[in-house]
Structure formats: structure tokens, C-alpha cells
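Something for you to look into today, if you have time. Could you write out one complete protein record for me, on any chain you like? Leave the record below and I will have a look.
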Amino acid sequence: MPASAGMTLSVGGCAAHRSSGALDYDARMCGRFTQAADGEIIAQVFELPEPPELPRRYNIAPTQDVAAVRRAEDGGRELVRLHWGLIPSWAKERAMGARMINARAETLVEKPAFRAAFRARRCLIVADGFYEWQKLGARKQPYFIGFTDRRPFAFAGLWERWIGEGSEAVESCTIVTTEANELLAPIHDRMPVILDPDVFAPWIDPAEKDTERLAGLLRPYPPGPLQAYPVSFFVNNPANDTPACRERMG
């Protein structure tokens, strides 16, 4: 999954891309995560028909393709690659997705960019960790967050299909966020929604239309099984995509 074309710049201590004249993500919330788990383990966790062949990624950035699981037409589950940055079906330009890498759980029903996908096109974003940046004076310290046992897990995601000029079709996604739990609160006030496997089925079921029930799944994950530790500024550059990105400092 190659990085998107464009120049890289530093925003508040975190790296961001500029493409088509627009920032690819809100600099106030740095969107990066990892997916380095074995395909066989991913197949078990997500109940896939066969192990996927995925490259190990240690610094996935907005506008890149990400692995996601959704309901297949035959009723099973399929793993697909989606552009990270949801492009609403009504968008005039593909570049709009650059501003839609995250969707606040509290306003999914209200926001025109997300409400249709929330009702019918929900997915699971495959990950095994993510990064957040803690503001420390004039700089920001990156932290890696994941399960202590390094297990793969799912972010709650929404996906959309956009048709551009010349019938260009792009399937894209966004990661749902909620307020931070006790572990993350000292680092950042928001965190991605992590879903337990026992709620995967209703979340990706397009027939599930009870938005109140679905919204009830979008809670801060309990801090107990999670860990958070500082990592080096090496991760700030999205061109760096090696295990060194999530090595603990000190």
C-alpha cells in the first residue's frame, strides 16, 4: 500500500501530507496506526474464509489504502482495501476525503458526510496498534497504543463508494472516534473506537438499522488490556514504515 503522492510537512510536531492543496487530515488529531499481525491470526479474529496476504505496516497514514472487513454479498465476511479518508457519494471532488479520516461517534447521525454510511455501510478497520501525540509545550511526544499481547483488533469504521468523472470508482473509509479512556486521557482527548469481536456481526450487518443500538457500541475501550508508551519522533515521518516506529523509548 504505497504512500500517497505529494509533499510532506510538519504540523504541530506531527507529519501531514499536502495533496491537491488540502491537508489530508486534521492536524489536531494525528491519524496513524499499525497492522503487522499474521494473516492466519487476522483470519481467526475476523472470521474470514481464508488468511489474507497483507504487508506488515508500522506507520499507516491518511490517504493510503487500509485493510477492512465488511459484509459480503453472500452474507459472509470479506477483506477489502479502502482509501483512508471517506469520500461522500455526493462529493464533487475526491480530495474531500482528505478531511474525513475520522468521524466523531457523537455526531454520526447528524453529519451529512457520515449519516448514510452509518446506517448502511459499516466496516471493521484491521489494526494492531495506533499512535497519538501528547502536547508537551512547543512539541508533541508520540505514543504507541495497543493491546499488551499485541493482538490484532478492529476500529469501528464506515465506508462509502464514490463515482468520479469518467466512472472512476473509489471505495473509501473513515475511523470512528470517541472520548479517550483513562489511559489515553493524559495523552489525547479522543481515541478510535475499538470493537470487541462479539459485536462485529451487528456492526457490519447492513440490515441492522437501529442507530441507537449501534451508537451504544461506540464507547471508549476499557483501559485494562491496553498499553501506552512513548516512541521516538521517527514515526512523525510517514515515509518511515518499519518496526522502529513503535519501539519503546528508554
Observations:
- Residues 39-46 form the longest helix (8 residues).
- The chain has four helices and 16 strands.
- The chain has a mean pLDDT of 88.
- The first strand starts at residue 7 and ends at 11.
